[in-house]
Design goal:
Layout (H helix, E strand, L loop, with lengths): L4 E6 L2 H23 L2 E5 L3 H10 L13 E5 L1 E3 L9 H13 L15 H15 L12 E4 L24 E5 L6 E5 L1 H4 L4 E6 L5 H10 L18 E7 H4 L3 H4 L4 E3 L1
Parallel strand pairs: 1-9, 2-3, 2-5, 5-8, 8-9
Antiparallel strand pairs: 1-10, 4-7, 6-7
């Protein structure tokens, strides 16, 4: 059964990063207590970079047993790991290196490979991490996601065949701009997670935030981000005031909502 969607609105990107760090650590503690590991899929972009810096700061870094955390990625651009546009590189600089995360606890998507090859390699990595039948789906403890101005999330773009995939865990995808060749987790994987946390900041995202959170819920057009609906996990949206400015809850002066 799908859980209620949780929406929280913070003053600015810095407050959002601190609140996201608190949630990250709490979920990590719960997962480690239950299973001795915390498996999280990271997102790219500037907002996750701020979260990474917060987690790696002296205030937060000591609060989790990082040796029991295993890092994965929700998507990747098809570039080498040293490329400025690489999601791995961003995470490596802002999170892995500062926290001294061991390389065998980082499962990166190999963007330097051909997209189909990289996608199949990463699917094999996930199936080894979560052994079982071919039809089984991995259950991440936490998946971090962002929101594009066109409503995409991870590298699931409007109108692409990746949105219709029901059996594969990882597929190639194509971005309409920037570095076009991508690799992404599929919707069935995203919707199997224990918790999905969207991080959205900035006034440029306010229009699409309203469309995804309000128009889709009212029966309007569906954007890729609106198709993320965990079957038995939490769906949480952290927004700063700029990104939330067009939402009804924001205009009503509310800073949180469950629906």
């Amino acid at each position: 059964m799908t859980h209620a969607r949780e929406i929280r609105i913070m003053r600015d990107a810095n407050e959002l990063a601190r609140e996201a760090a608190e949630l990250f650590l709490w979920l990590g503690e719960q997962a480690i207590a239950a299973t001795e590991r915390f498996r999280v899929a990271l997102a790219g972009g500037t907002t996750p970079a701020t979260l990474h810096a917060t987690l790696a700061s002296s205030e937060y870094a000591h609060r989790l047993d990082w040796k029991k955390v295993r890092f994965f990625f929700g998507d990747e651009r098809c570039v080498p790991p040293s490329h400025p546009e690489s999601n791995f590189r961003m995470a490596d600089v802002t999170l892995f290196q500062p926290l001294k995360i061991a390389s065998d606890h980082i499962c990166r998507m190999k963007g330097e490979e051909q997209p189909e090859t990289a996608a199949r390699q990463y699917e094999q990595t996930l199936r080894q991490e979560w052994p079982g039948s071919d039809s089984s789906l991995p259950r991440f403890d936490l998946i971090l996601l962002g929101l594009g101005e066109d409503g995409h999330t991870a590298s699931l773009f409007p109108g692409t065949s990746a949105l219709d995939e029901q059996t594969r865990l990882v597929v190639p995808s194509t971005s309409p701009k920037g570095i076009q060749a991508r690799i992404t987790l599929t919707l069935p994987v995203l919707n199997r997670a224990g918790a999905v946390l969207f991080l959205v900041t900035g006034q440029k995202k306010s229009g699409i935030t309203r469309k995804v959170l309000e128009n889709s819920a009212a029966g309007g057009p569906s954007w890729p981000a609106s198709l993320v609906r965990p079957i038995s996990g939490r769906l949480i949206w952290f927004l700063d005031q700029a990104a939330a400015m067009d939402l009804t809850v924001s205009r009503q002066g509310m800073n949180s909502r469950e629906e």
